[in-house]
Design goal:
The chain is 74% helix and 5% strand. It has three helices and two strands, in the order ββααα. The protein is rod-shaped and about 105 Å long. It binds zinc ion (ZN). Zinc ion is lined by residues 6, 8-9, 11, 20, 22-23, 25.
Length: 125
């Protein structure tokens, strides 16, 4: 059993002790860092890398969310517009029997389209 000097208080402590009995300075950490790979720089690197990653991810994330919202509203507008495009000729050309369902489809299409327009306006205005 070797004795080492505590780097904190200078007292001689057993090299097997995990901490200085006098000032509770953690010794085992110091021993492992001097013999093996130094954990502190890796830790700092990892932390800074994580911080950079977080910083880089925060900005595009909000932009992406807005883009995705806009995209879903555009898709809803497209669906509503398509329903209208289908419903109008169907009602015109389909005769009496088609008036009911085509009107129903057209109204739904109009509601979806208008709702999507209002939604995109609400989210961006
Ligand atoms: Zn000590």
């Amino acid at each position: 059993m070797a004795l080492i000097d505590c780097p904190e208080c200078g007292r001689q402590v057993s090299s097997l002790a995990t901490a200085c009995p006098d000032c509770a300075y953690p010794l085992q950490k110091k021993v492992s860092s001097s013999s093996g790979a130094p954990p502190a720089p890796t830790d700092d690197l990892l932390r800074s890398a994580l911080a950079t990653d977080r910083r880089a991810r925060t900005a595009p994330n909000s932009v992406q969310t807005i883009e995705q919202t806009a995209k879903s509203w555009k898709a809803a507008q497209l669906i509503g517009g398509l329903l209208l495009v289908v419903a109008i000729p169907w009602g015109v050309l389909g005769g009496e029997r088609a008036i009911g369902p085509s009107l129903f489809l057209g109204v739904i299409g109009l509601i979806v389209y208008l709702a999507a327009r209002m939604g995109s306006w609400w989210h961006h205005g």
